Amino acid sequence: MSQSKTAPSERTRVRRLHERGSYDAASVYGVLDAMPLCHVGYIVDGKPHVTPTLQWREGDHVYWHGSAASRFLRAARGMHACLTVTMWDGMVMARSGFHHSANYRSCMVFGEVEMVEDAAHKTNRLEAMFDVWFPGRWDVLRPINAKELKATTVLRLPLNEASVKIRTGPPGDDEEDYALPIWAGVVPLSTATDEPVDDPRNLPGMTPPDHVRNFRVGRKV
Amino acid sequence: MSQSKTAPSERTRVRRLHERGSYDAASVYGVLDAMPLCHVGYIVDGKPHVTPTLQWREGDHVYWHGSAASRFLRAARGMHACLTVTMWDGMVMARSGFHHSANYRSCMVFGEVEMVEDAAHKTNRLEAMFDVWFPGRWDVLRPINAKELKATTVLRLPLNEASVKIRTGPPGDDEEDYALPIWAGVVPLSTATDEPVDDPRNLPGMTPPDHVRNFRVGRKV
Question: Best interface-test mutation with A: which of B44, B138, B199, B202 has the largest number of A CBs within 10 A?
């Protein structure tokens, strides 16, 4: 994402709380790379439709995938979309109700959906998805076949219209309220990764490889 | 939500993977009550816009709030919206790339945004929000004043058009792939609540009350 590409458009400009907004590539990459879960908004029959999915980033594009049988994804090419990633990092508890808030990192990406259709290109993107989430796993799996590839839709948005908002730190109370005997502070939240659960149908003696044990999401940037 | 209200509309019907979909009130309440973080999709200038916020439920409505200065929220009355809550409960790792998946609980609510405007009604909703998230805190705070109430917009959607999708359990591999010596299983994910962090400007001797220590999100239903 070049410097010129990161200038805020009318749509991405963060209107309120300007100090929380940024548009630089490092900020956008930082949020997208920390959390695969995203929500993609489309317009379906004239109404907004927000669906959860998992995203990954390669260079200046954010990718997601789904079933070629999906009514949404089949019709997605060229559709306007907004892909939003949010990590809720904490509940911010102030001395007044009004100043309660949330600590968070979020990224909104706007654009027109592009479809990855060439079979080789599509295979490479799915391999890259595995490399992002659990490096090394792709090579140990039963290889993807032509039928599966055909049944998979890979979509992407360019990152030339994206913005990031981040809030951190303690509450910001009205100055006179700091004298009140009310506990204020932050309850930190994070995504915990628990011990891998074996598939009951694993062959005897199988244990989770490093790429499973090392899988983490929601890392702090 | 009466039985008749929970019949799936054309929009909420889960088209794919029917076994994952449900429309009953208990399922909808279960997801909404477990996770305040939501993503609300609106149409702004003809394009989808997905913003993160925190929701709470009272009866057959889902509520959220924001600043009365927000360009979105000011114009939101009667706008079509889609509010989606998602908990990502695990990464599902199969023996083929194709059958990798995610365990999750998600709820989509569709409707036209209603604004809560009456001052007393608005105050009661904000108090209810505190009662949902940290019962007892509202009463110990510096009370809300007229200026703050005016600066706060409270919005809601009825829950008469909502659907839930849930995936749990191990991967579903192709039958012949179960013979392969590949580890498969689930890496469970959850929202962890860490120790409260005191505001550095707390008065001496203040400690987090029970409603802070007991705050949890993303509970399993």
Answer: B199
